[in-house]
Amino acid sequence: MRSNGRAWSSDEGGLKSIPPPGSLLDVGGFRLHLVTAGEGTPAVVLDAALGASSVSWSLVQPAVAQFTRVCSYDRAGFGWSDAGPLPRTARRIASELRTLLSIAAVPPPYVLVGHSFGGIVMRVFAHDYRADVVGLVLVDPAHAEDWVAPAPKERHKIDRGVSLCRYGAAATRMGVARAVAALVSMGAYGIARGLVKVTSRGALSREDEGILAPIWKLPREARAPLAQFWTQTKFFEALGSQIASICESAAEAVEAESQGYGDLPLVTISSSDPGDYRLAQQDSLARRSSRGRHVIASNSGHWIPLDEPALVVSEIRDMVETVRRERA
Length: 328
Prior knowledge:
By secondary structure, the chain is of the alpha/beta class. The chain is 44% helix and 15% strand. The chain contains 13 helices and 10 strands. Strand 9, helix 11 (276-286) and strand 10 (292-296) form a beta-alpha-beta unit. The relative contact order is 0.15.
């Protein structure tokens, strides 16, 4: 049957598989999904938020492709990528990304763009492969310093996230996730939420839903694959491992930044009205480069690539043009 213009498979009541828009490339026994567009150098490399995938760059990548080559990808276990080795730490993810770019023949130099958790990954990448990197754009990045030795409030978030992923993985094995995805895509939100509540024994709340992604901020055509992603055990196992390993990933980022960024062009973008504590963090991050800047979005929550994609594109364009002038 069809609902809201989306195709559904009648067998097993499941969703029809949506093919990957990019390439699946073997990076050492498992495949990662890479989407490339545009031409030119430096290449821009996009990394998404904690529970997000390449589709979260749907409003940014096409615009960047108008002036240079741009790549988005799915971390192992996410989107169309295969499951990868555990634990899913920032340094492991950065290493896999560097291998992916090499195999895909996307040569450096790179302008790295990381949103939220992707910012931690890109900070480690910028350290480990410094000779390949000519710019860093951090979009409302997670601040590693908050997670090295998390306070009780942050520890609760970690435990809650791991619990959510445990329930999600169990639901995929029982086939419940496929039913929920179908109900949501058909607009039966109340029934879907009730089914999740029963399956999880009431352990999940509406606040927990935000760990995955802000579905309705995505373009309509980009929402359909999410139902496919969220019915796969690999997704919840990878996400759970990222959350469980956040302290190790944070320590990797803090260690990587111990010497600062020198004169590497760096821009960090804050959400609107982030509060004094967050502003101070972002200012401090920008000062780690002698060419760092802190930009505050005028009308965005945490998901700036979806709330104000034009701002993200503008900052990327400025950095690409700066790099080109200097290299010329």
